[in-house]
Each structure stands twice: as C-alpha cells, then as structure tokens.
Automatic annotation (TrEMBL):
Organism (species): Polyplax serrata
Superkingdom of origin: Eukaryota
PROSITE patterns: CSA_PPIASE_1, CSA_PPIASE_2, THIOREDOXIN_2
Entry-linked InterPro entries: AhpC/TSA (IPR000866), Cyclophilin-like_dom_sf (IPR029000), Cyclophilin-type_PPIase_CS (IPR020892), Cyclophilin-type_PPIase_dom (IPR002130), Peroxiredoxin (IPR050217), Peroxiredoxin_C (IPR019479), Thioredoxin-like_sf (IPR036249), Thioredoxin_domain (IPR013766)
One example of a Gene Ontology biological process annotation: cell redox homeostasis
UniProt record similarity statement: Belongs to the peroxiredoxin family. AhpC/Prx1 subfamily. Belongs to the cyclophilin-type PPIase family. PPIL3 subfamily.
Keywords on record: Antioxidant, Disulfide bond, Isomerase, Oxidoreductase, Peroxidase, Redox-active center, Rotamase
Name of the protein this chain belongs to: Uncharacterized protein
C-alpha cells in the first residue's frame, strides 16, 4: 500500500504492546489530544534497531514534557518483544524501556502506513508525527541500514507545535527560540533582515545585516552583540577616506575571537562588494581568519572585494560615521588620540524598527 497523505487522518491502529514488561492493548485513540511519534523498525534482535529504540526510550521524558508520546512498532509478536526486553542492553537486548513496543504480527498496521516490504514481511524504518487531532504532520522512511535521529524528531515536533500555536512558519534549521516567519510575502521579508545599532561616543550607527547571504558571519556578529562582547570596544584603527575598525575587546588591534572557538571561514558573495561608504566587513589576517573585529568603509574600496567578507551596510547614522572620520589619529598606527568607544548595541529584528 502507498504511504498515507500528509494533513490527512492517520490510519487507525490497535494492537498488543509491551509496556513495562506487561502486555497491554493500545490504539491510536489512546493518544487523542497529544502529539504522537510512531516509528516502525524492521525486527527484534537485530543491530541498528536497538540503538534507535534505546535512544528514543532514554529521551522520552523530553517528548512527554511537550505533550508528545512515542511508540515503536514492528511485525514481530508481542512475545518476541517481551523476550527482547528481558535481554540486557549490554548483551544486545533493549532492557527496561520507557516506550511501548507495539506488535503488528498481522502486518496490518505496517501496510496501512505504507512501510511494509511485501516480499520480506519486514517494515522499513518509517517515522510518523501525528498531532493531537490525529492528523499526519510528518513522514520519513529510511532504508534498513540507517537509523533515525532523536534530536531531529524532537525538533520537528517542537516546530509543528509552534506553528500550531502561533500561526507562523519555521525556516530551515529552526530550533526553539530561533526566528520564525510570517506566512505572507511582505512580512516574511523580516526574517531575512536584521539590523543592529551601535551606540558610540559620537552617535548611533545603524547597520543592516546580510543574514541570508552570510549566515555564519551574521550569526557570529549577532551573538557577540547580544552578549555585550562589543560593549566598550574602541575604534582602534581609523584611516580617513579608507576605513574605521573596531571589535577587539583587548583594545590592541590583535585580539578578539568568534563564537565558534576558532577563526572561521569567509563568506564571499558577488552581490556584496565594497561599493559605497558605510560597507561593513569582517577584518582578518588572511583567508578564513575571521574572528570578532570588523570595519566600516569611508568610501568605495573595490580592492577589498573577495578578500574581506561584506556582511552589512550602514543604513542610518552617517553623521556619526562623519564624526569618526574627523578624529585626530596617531600617524604611526592610525589609532585615534582620544579613545572613542561602542557603549552599547541594540539588536533589531527588522531594519526599519527603532
């Protein structure tokens, strides 16, 4: 039988399961009002299967804490399931489990969910996320050799629950606490646009970030902003007509680190060039050596293209940029004679917000 369809009622099931080493009849009806992860595995007493079952069982509290239950199913008998739970994990069994093992000896459930290999009588590794209204929200089917991810399954349940509650949509790699999107053309653009305001001694400078094109660079920059990393950083290098540089908490021009615990890779894009006053780029010591320092250009600098990652542009506060350019500097190292600092940073979800 083919796979069931998403956004349709999940196929009903009823059968004997092993729960706490006891036989108990369970059905889909038992899970009304809750999310349910139903996953099929090929056979008891095999190799990949116990790793999956144990992994889900050991983390079932995380699912239960968000109103989600987990059931594992195969076409073995409930007697086989029970025997398997009586074998210690170190001997290839599954031991004590916190999730039901559903027996589908008649193959009817695996057929209804479209995961049965009719020639072998063994189900593929199908996983189904069913919501509280018993609608199918997610379907994945792995071939036999590869197990599934508990982390990804939990993330998907959390994402569907978030969309249910808030009516927004979750972009790629979404995790709880990450940004979501409004499901319409105009408001969805806000997801791809973020900005920060640098509150400096000479005024505010607002920077739009190119999060879509330079995700890792912007993730690093935003995380540093959010942690007050840049608070108190001086503009330690200031060359009139060229750039002003900051982002080093050691104030030496040689310090600073990324959130990744190492120097990270450049993110060059053809559409992001040093074409105008107010271009914001990462400072580096060569290819793929980005950390925390960044600079703002005082004018077009095409010779910097494809050498320094452009990750934003100034959209407001050019008067403050003018004041920075006027600062008197030491001609030997271009350091302003009067320390000029970033006093604070405000993060905006929308560049048009104040």
């Amino acid at each position: 039988m083919p796979l069931p369809e998403l956004q349709m009622k999940a196929p009903h099931f009823k059968g004997i399961a092993v729960i706490d080493k006891q036989f108990r009849e369970i059905s889909l009806d038992d899970y009304k009002g809750k999310y349910l992860v139903l996953f099929f595995y090929p056979l008891d007493f095999t190799f990949v299967c116990p790793t999956e079952i144990i992994a889900f069982s050991d983390r079932v509290k995380e699912f239960k804490s968000i109103g989600c239950e987990v059931v594992a199913a195969s076409c073995d008998s409930h007697f086989s399931h029970l025997a398997w739970t009586n074998v210690p994990r170190k001997e290839g069994g599954v031991g004590d489990l916190q999730i039901p093992l559903l027996a589908d000896k008649s193959f009817s459930i695996a057929k209804a969910y479209g995961v049965l290999n009719e020639q072998t009588g063994v189900p593929y590794r199908g996983l189904f996320i069913i919501d509280g209204k018993q609608m199918l929200r997610q379907i994945t089917v792995n071939d036999l050799p590869v197990g599934r991810s508990v982390d990804e399954t939990l993330r998907l349940v959390q994402a569907f629950q978030y969309t249910d509650e808030h009516g927004e949509v979750c972009p790629a790699n979404w995790k709880p606490g990450s940004k979501t999107m409004k499901p319409n053309p105009k408001e969805s653009l806000n997801y791809f646009k973020q900005a920060v305001t640098l509150h400096t001694d000479v005024g505010d400078i607002k920077i739009e970030l190119f999060c879509e094109g330079c995700p890792r660079t912007c993730e690093n920059f935003l995380a540093l902003c959010a942690s007050d990393y840049y608070k108190g950083c001086t503009f330690h290098r200031n060359i009139k007509g060229f750039i002003v540089q900051t982002g080093d908490p050691t104030q030496t021009g040689k310090g600073g680190s990324s959130i990744y615990g190492r120097k990270f890779e450049d993110e060059f894009k053809d559409e992001y060039k040093h074409t105008a006053r107010g271009t914001v780029s990462m400072a580096n010591n060569g290819p793929n050596t980005n950390g925390s320092q960044f600079f703002i250009t005082y004018g077009p600098q095409p010779h910097l293209d494809l050498k320094y990652t452009v990750f934003g542009k100034v959209i407001d506060g050019f008067e403050a940029l003018d004041e920075l350019e006027k600062l008197t500097v030491n001609p030997k190292n271009y350091r302003p004679l009067t320390d000029t600092k970033i006093n604070d940073v405000t993060i905006h979800a929308n560049p048009l917000a104040y």
